[in-house]
Design a protein that fits this description.
Blueprint (H helix, E strand, L loop, with lengths): L1 H37 L3 H6 L10 H44 L5 H20 L14 H24 L3 H17 L13 H32 L5
Helix pairs in contact: 1-3, 1-7, 3-7, 4-5, 4-7, 5-6
Length: 234
């Protein structure tokens, strides 16, 4: 148990830091851009900088800049905490699965485990529910969460059947589990135009795909490395 805890904590903390850096570089600027459309200030923002208008008093401009710095710092701190906490949680799931498999692990096998986690927790749900930016039209939150959880659980079971069972019947069952959530369909609202441009949404979906894939590879590789490193005979 100590081996699992140490490997999951270290791998999760380091992978969370890596995820934070990737988000800061790729996805956070897109989210900030989308928030401009969400609050309806896009036309003004498109042709002007974020600085106060020339007619604004100098005192107001001096006050706005520290507030913006404080808001940005608070956002980054919360993003860092969320990335690390989520990475540690997924690290426990991943390292625990490595231990239960009884097949041993190293950083190479860990990357394979990470790619399986990526497929189950991101790729499969994203086939029905694409990553969303602020201001995008979406279905009711509870329905989306229920579909996401069901899809991820079905994908986890399907991958387990593929890698840990023998026989064509189990493989067919795995295929059915992968297809069933998509056949049921993710909850979507009545189609209507949103505020966020389609190009921005597509760019965010692509960036999320790459960033999340790199995160899972780092988490899996580190999880396998530390799990092997803390083995009694290491």
């Amino acid at each position: 148990m100590q081996r699992i805890v140490m490997a999951a904590l270290l791998a999760g903390a380091l992978a969370g830091l890596a995820a934070f850096a990737l988000h800061l570089w790729q996805t956070t600027p897109l989210i900030l851009h989308a928030e401009v459309y969400e609050d309806g200030s896009a036309p003004a923002a498109a042709g002007h900088s974020h600085a106060p208008a020339p007619s604004a008093p100098a005192a107001q401009a001096q006050k706005a800049e520290p507030e913006k710095i404080t808001d940005d710092l608070g956002r980054h701190v919360l993003t860092l905490l969320a990335d690390v906490v989520i990475a540690v949680g997924f690290g426990f799931l991943l390292v625990g699965a490595m231990a239960l498999s009884g097949r041993g692990a190293d950083w190479r096998r860990g990357i394979v485990w990470g790619l399986c986690g990526y497929a189950a927790f991101y790729v499969a749900p994203s086939l029905g529910l694409a990553p969303e930016l602020p201001g995008m039209v979406a279905a009711e939150l509870g329905a989306r969460q229920a579909w996401w959880l069901g899809t991820a659980a079905a994908a986890v079971v399907a991958l387990g059947l593929i890698f840990f069972t023998q026989g064509a019947l189990w493989k067919v069952l795995a295929a059915l589990l992968l297809v069933a959530p998509q056949a049921i369909g993710a909850p979507h609202p009545v189609m209507e135009a949103g505020n966020v441009p389609a190009e921005l949404a597509a760019q965010f979906a692509t960036a999320s795909l790459v960033v999340t894939g790199l995160f899972w590879m780092v988490l899996g590789g580190l999880g396998g490395y530390f799990y092997q490193r803390f083995a009694p005979n290491a």
